[in-house]
């Protein structure tokens, strides 16, 4: 497994960064949506909503960057992956429609607030499940002929993709619960810690199950992970995962505020490393490499200039927006 | 339901439906973001509460419209891949980077500052809040810049090379791609359209409340501002549209032939058809009412100039005339109606009757939605008029679509229609409700709306309001949507 830092490689890391940013940022606000039925109607739900209302739109923009970036930097991969996961993509987009408008609509129409709360929950759940299943569908491989997807409508549906879908749902719930524990106080916080523990347990189980199942999906994954020099180089990944899991569990038990969220982020980061090791150098696993899918060099260079100039600014003002809305959300909005 | 259509037609219907629905929201939010920036700027400059009230009032409407724009826009960014994957593979190297720049320079800017704009008034200083509003407004404009560059490149492609696999590759100059021949015209025409659309919507809200109470200071201010905009910008828009049309004649003559209903060539000056029923089967315009030689006069500035007709275009390369002919007339007709409204308002101003002329207010009310209709009609004209191509003259629509079977495209189309009509229909209803309420002195912002007291920005509502919300929540019961 050699990594030469050519343009396509740089772009693979940029796309991976955008997707990871999306997963952790929209992950916590989708997670709050997934846990929404467990919050008491009224104050607790309003608080949960307020904990993400000022930032959700920025979080979701990373999804546009992930999708748009894939289109721009690896158009062939975009042209294969979207048809291959067509129903999942449609379901995700419609789910995001429902949850996105719920942020505004639930305040506009108090008589139907319960309805929009349900739409917020269902939309978040469907979007998260579809994203997780897309991951599974890609890892298990898609049927490509020439430059196009050549499989059936339901190739993406398998026990493995259901497993990865469920894994992402509980993982997002973990992020959401940990974020909420930072933003609220009292009873609501106690419940957030309880949710976080349950979600942490489920997430770790799902990570273990996916890690065990993936090497047996295809020869490549097995060879990649259980090949001698690399096995030692990669050994720290599972070890670190177990350590972080223990730290997360203890931090939740001690009702620490920021550490659980950071440990949950670390879990996602480790999961991403594992995924990267499995996938490299494919952008469509087992069929299209990043070099085969790469856009022309001129396209990648032109965009790289934009990323280099603009990304620091984006990170700076996004950070500033989070800073403006720092602290507890309180029962009556931010104090 | 869609069993009679092939997958290409279904994919086109899906794109047309989702993009038309989507564009309603940005057409409004591009203009509204700038209007909000103007209102906040006036408030900071004059200190008059009236401007702050109007700012907060329109901010609530902006929040709802923007949320719908975001989620329907997200669908668009994936639509290229789901239904048009061959197009994406072939053109991704050229238009992909432009869309990536849109995300980097526009979407993040809008989204990053939107939270502060909506909820941050009590948390940052006035100057910083105004800066956030300006950034959101700037973001909407930058977004229009990039996406219209992409669309224009597809209409008038320049600066590309063709790769060995038939892929479009960028040439040495990105400026040649971005500033393709139709882009400046389309950008100006579309952005002005967004401003005009917003002005007419704001004017209609002002008119509605003036019809109820002529002394309503908030209604007067928004009506006056909107009518200035209509009077000044509608004529500019007609000139911009004319210039855009001449540009189209140069680069996409078949589109103009369809717009004009010119099935036949006219070697000695072409007539301007005011009315007619295009019949693509017989290639004739029935029941035509024409002004002789006027089309040549408009398009060539010479009544006797020859104009080629669709008979010079291969039959399989002609756009469907019926749609283009009529959508163009709807757009132009509404454009002149807007000009008429603007002139009427100037007359009313001269006679000092701007707030005391109910018929003017009724006309402004009726014209409220006209901008949206005109904008959609304009897009239909340009998009149907460039058929049968996605990349004009180079890649046909039929060659561009994904290997997705018709039933799958039909099912997703049906899902989009149901969800969009329900969700965005309700959203539009909420906007209309807000418009009906009107702006009041001491207007609350989205963060402290009386119905949603528990938002950010340090406002602390009394506990009774709080209980009221909870009660409402309890009452609504299961699945209570009507």
UniProtKB/TrEMBL annotation, chain A:
NCBIfam families: cydB (TIGR00203). GO terms for biological process: aerobic electron transport chain. PANTHER family: CYTOCHROME BD2 SUBUNIT II. The keyword Coiled coil does not apply. It comes from the Bacteria. GO terms for cellular component: cytochrome complex; plasma membrane. Keywords: Cell membrane, Membrane, Transmembrane, Transmembrane helix. The chain crosses the membrane at residues 12-39, 86-107, 119-140, 160-182, 198-218, 230-249, 261-282, 302-325. This is Cytochrome d ubiquinol oxidase subunit II. It is a multi-pass membrane protein. Its main location: membrane. InterPro entries: Cyt-d_oxidase_su2. It is found in: Cell membrane. The keyword Membrane applies. GO terms for molecular function: electron transfer activity; oxidoreductase activity, acting on diphenols and related substances as donors, oxygen as acceptor. Belongs to the cytochrome ubiquinol oxidase subunit 2 family.
């Amino acid at each position: 497994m050699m990594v030469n830092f050519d343009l396509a490689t740089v772009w693979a890391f940029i796309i991976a960064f955008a997707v990871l940013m999306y997963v952790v940022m929209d992950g916590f606000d989708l997670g709050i949506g997934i846990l929404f039925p467990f919050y008491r109607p009224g104050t607790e739900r309003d608080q949960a909503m307020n904990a993400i209302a000022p930032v959700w739109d920025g979080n979701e923009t990373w999804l546009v960057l992930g999708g748009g970036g894939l289109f721009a930097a690896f158009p062939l991969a975009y042209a294969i992956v979207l048809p291959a996961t067509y129903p999942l993509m449609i379901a995700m987009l419609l789910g995001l429609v429902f949850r996105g408008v719920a942020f505004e609509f639930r305040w506009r129409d108090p008589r139907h607030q319960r309805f929009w709360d349900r739409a917020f929950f269902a939309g978040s759940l469907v979007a998260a499940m579809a994203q997780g299943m897309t991951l599974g569908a890609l890892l298990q491989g898609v049927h490509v002929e020439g430059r196009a997807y050549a499989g059936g409508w339901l190739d993406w549906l398998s026990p493995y993709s259901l497993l990865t879908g469920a894994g992402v749902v509980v993982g997002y719930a973990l992020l959401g619960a940990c974020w909420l524990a930072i933003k609220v106080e009292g009873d609501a916080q106690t419940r957030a810690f309880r949710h976080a523990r349950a979600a942490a347990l489920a997430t770790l189980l799902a990570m273990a199950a996916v890690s065990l199942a993936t090497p047996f999906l295809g020869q490549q994954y097995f060879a990649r992970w259980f090949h001698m020099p690399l096995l030692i180089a990669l050994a720290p990944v599972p070890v670190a995962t177990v350590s972080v899991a223990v730290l997360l569990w203890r931090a939740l038990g001690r009702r620490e505020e920021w550490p659980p969220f950071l440990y949950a982020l670390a879990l996602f980061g480790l999961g991403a490393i594992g995924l990267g090791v499995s996938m490299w150098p494919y952008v469509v696993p087992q069929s299209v490499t990043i070099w085969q899918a790469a856009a022309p060099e001129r396209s990648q260079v032109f965009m790289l200039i934009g990323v280099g100039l603009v990304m620091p600014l984006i990170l700076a003002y996004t950070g500033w927006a989070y800073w403006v809305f720092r602290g507890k959300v309180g029962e009556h909005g931010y104090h | 339901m869609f069993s009679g259509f092939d997958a290409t037609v279904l994919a086109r219907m899906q794109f047309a439906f989702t993009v038309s629905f989507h564009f309603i929201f940005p057409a409004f939010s591009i203009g509204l973001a700038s209007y909000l920036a103007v209102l906040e700027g006036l408030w900071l400059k004059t200190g008059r509460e009236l401007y702050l009230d109007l700012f907060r009032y329109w901010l609530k409407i902006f929040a709802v419209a923007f949320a719908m724009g975001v989620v329907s826009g997200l669908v668009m960014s994936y639509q290229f891949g789901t239904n048009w994957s061959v197009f994406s593979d072939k053109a991704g190297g050229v238009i992909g980077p432009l869309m990536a720049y849109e995300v980097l320079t526009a979407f993040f800017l809008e989204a990053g500052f939107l939270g502060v704009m909506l909820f941050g008034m009590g948390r940052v200083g006035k100057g910083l809040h105004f800066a956030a509003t300006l950034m959101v407004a700037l973001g909407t404009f930058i977004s229009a810049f990039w996406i219209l560059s992409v669309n224009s490149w597809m209409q008038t492609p320049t600066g590309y090379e063709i790769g060995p696999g038939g892929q479009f590759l960028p040439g040495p100059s990105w400026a040649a791609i971005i500033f393709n021949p139709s882009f400046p015209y389309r950008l100006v025409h579309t952005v002005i359209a967004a401003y005009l659309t917003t002005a007419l919507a704001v004017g209609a809200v002002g008119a509605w409340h003036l019809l109820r109470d002529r002394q309503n200071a908030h209604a007067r201010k928004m009506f006056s501002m909107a009518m200035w905009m209509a009077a000044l910008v509608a004529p500019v828009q007609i000139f911009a549209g004319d210039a855009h049309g001449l540009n189209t004649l140069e680069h996409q003559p078949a589109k103009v032939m369809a717009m004009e209903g010119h099935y036949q060539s006219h070697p000695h000056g072409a007539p301007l058809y005011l009315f007619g029923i295009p019949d693509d089967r017989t290639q004739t315009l029935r029941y035509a009412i024409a002004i002789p030689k006027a089309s040549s006069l408009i398009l060539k500035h010479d009544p006797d100039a020859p104009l080629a007709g669709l008979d010079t275009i291969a039959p399989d390369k002609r756009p469907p005339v019926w749609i283009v002919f009529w959508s163009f007339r709807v757009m132009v007709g509404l454009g002149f109606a807007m000009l008429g409204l603007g002139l009427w308002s100037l007359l009313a101003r001269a006679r000092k009757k701007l707030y005391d002329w109910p018929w003017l207010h009724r006309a402004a009310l009726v014209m409220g939605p006209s901008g949206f209709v005109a904008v959609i009609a304009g897009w239909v004209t340009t998009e149907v008029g460039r058929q049968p191509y996605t990349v004009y003259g180079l890649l046909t629509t039929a060659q561009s679509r994904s290997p997705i079977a018709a039933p799958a495209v039909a099912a997703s189309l049906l899902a989009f229609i149901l969800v969009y009509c329900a969700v965005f229909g309700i959203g539009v209803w909420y906007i209309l409700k807000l418009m009906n309420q009107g702006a009041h002195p001491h207007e609350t912002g989205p963060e402290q709306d009386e119905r949603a007291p528990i938002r950010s920005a340090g406002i602390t509502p009394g506990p009774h309001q709080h209980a009221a919300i909870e009660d409402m929540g309890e009452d609504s019961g299961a699945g209570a949507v009507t």
